[in-house]
C-alpha cells in the first residue's frame, strides 16, 4: 500500500503536479529524482496495491541493479553505518562485526529496502546522524580541526535529512541535542578553557547543528514549491492566492486581493 502511496508522489514530482502530504517533502523528492534519473516517465497511475508495472521503468525508485538502486542502496548503507558506529563506541571489532551481521540478516530491514518507501531513506539519515555525532565526539581532543568541522557539519546535514523525510526525525534531533548539551556542560566546567574559547564552541554548534539544518530544511520546501507548479490534487488545501500561481488551476493568473 505504501509503495502505491509514495510511488504516486514520485510521479507527481516528475510531472510537476502539486499535491499535499502530511510528511515533509525530501523523501518523496528523492524518490522522484531517482525515478527521473533512471528513465521513469511518471505515467504509471499507482491506483491500487498489487498493480503490475508492466513496461514502466520503476527500477530506479525501487532499485536492485546498477545505478538504479536508491532505496535498496540506502538500505544497504545501514550495515556499514551500524558497523562504524559500534566500532567507534566500543573499540571492539567483534562487537562491530556482530552488529553488522545481525543487521545484514534482519528480515524487516531487507524487506523495507526493496520497495518505494520512505523508511530506508529515513533510516539512512537517522543512522548517518548518529554515526556523524559519534565521529565528531571522537575528535573532541582536536576541536576546530578539519575532521571536527566535517563531522559536526555532516551531523547537521543528516539532522535536516531526517527531519525532511518524516517528523519522527525529531527523535534523533533530541539525541544529538542532549549529547551537545552534555558536551557543552563538560566544556564549561573545564577551568583551563577560557570563556572566549567556550563561546567559539557554542557558536560552532549553533551554526552547524541549528542554523545549517534549518536552512537546509527551508531549502527543501523552496525546491518543493518551485518544482510543483502545476495544478493537482493538493490545490484545495491552500489559499486562493496560492492556487492562482499554479498552472492549470481555474484561478491561474487571476488577481487575488490580500
Structure description:
With 258 residues, this protein is mostly helical. It has one domain (2-236). The chain has helices at 2-15, 26-37, 59-62, 71-90, 93-104, 107-112, 119-138, 146-165, 170-188, 195-227, 240-243. Helix 4 packs parallel to helix 7 (119-138), helix 8 packs parallel to helix 10 and helix 9 (170-188) packs antiparallel against helix 10. The longest helix is centred in the C-terminal third of the chain and has 33 residues, at 195-227.
The largest β sheet comes out as: none
Main structural class: mainly alpha
Helix content: 55-70%
Strand content: under 5%
Compute the number of helices. Answer: 11
- The termini sit apart by 41 Å
SSE arrangement, N to C: HHHHHHHHHHH
Shape: flat
Q: Which stretches are low in confidence, meaning pLDDT under 50 for 5 or more residues running?
A: 63-68
Tally the structural domains. Answer: 1
Radius of gyration: 22 Å
Mean pLDDT: 89
**Number of strand elements:** 0
